[in-house]
Amino acid sequence: MVLWTALVVIAYRGMAALVLDETAAPARGGTAVAVTPAARFPVGLAEAYAAEFGQVYLNASPQTQAQRAQELAAFVPPRVAAADPDLGWNGTGELQLQSEQVAGIEVRDASHAVITLLATVNGRLMELGVPVVASGRGVVISGQPAWLPAPQQISPPPEAGSNDPQAKSELMNELPAFFQAYAAGDSAALSRFAAPGVSLTGLDGAVTFGSVVSLDVPVGGRARQVTATVIWESGQAEPDAAEFESTYGMSVYLQSGKWYVTEISASTEAVGAQ
To answer: What string of DSSP letters covers 217-238?
Structure first.
């Protein structure tokens, strides 16, 4: 009798779910993911399309006006190409694009977005806002783009903390040999500076080591985040060898009186510019 009662309850619940159009709850530990209309916008395709458009739009010369208009027509709706074949340009003066890349995207909904291009035109940095409409795998530049100012240049915050003179002296004795091995890509030599379990890859002879010109070692414990500025020399023969400074952020660790490197990368601290 208990079994029949259970079967009746299960059957009733199943019918109720069908009638009320109920959906099953997520599995234990799972979460329901809501997909917004904007999430369906083909970001990668639109960015690539806008970048190709920028290559045409940001180059202009009276000698190639007709060709430019023809190429622009491939990106915009026919009515826009017919009414404004030059997309706002008056046909005089010249634009020359030196470089361009996608800087960002603002997706408005499933079909509309504005792609921002960062570009250097006639030797000056600027941004270009490109309106894009998408549907499935189709995209179009819906109208004239907007010229925007270049990103504002800011001053980095001042460095925090003070130098540890003893640790700095110890590292200055060890880092020249490390950077020599790093420049050469000498894996055997690099392994002597690497912390246990860490594998370091060098520059494989692309440059040669000159000197360590600056080192910032904040006060701390055994693990430190230090900043080193190094002079590299190009592989060209003297006297044509070029010299240039590079600033690195390095994670180092003190063990048994020796500093070991756990990581080396570009630094956010502009020590070399001081």
So the answer is: -BS-SSEEEEEEEEEEEESSPT
Contact yes or no for 263/225 (Cβ under 8 A): no
β strands within 65-198, DSSP E: 97-107, 112-121, 124-135, 138-141, 146-148
**How many residues make up the chain in this entry?**
274
pTM score above 0.85: no
- List, in order of start, the domains of the chain with CATH numbers: 38-148 (3.10.450.540), 165-273 (3.10.450.540)
Under 8 Å between Cβ of 206 and 214: no
Q: Cα–Cα distance between 142 and 92 in angstroms, integer?
A: 24
Angstrom distance (rounded) from CA 244 to CA 241: 10
Residues of the chain with pLDDT under 70: 1-35, 159-161, 235-240, 270-274
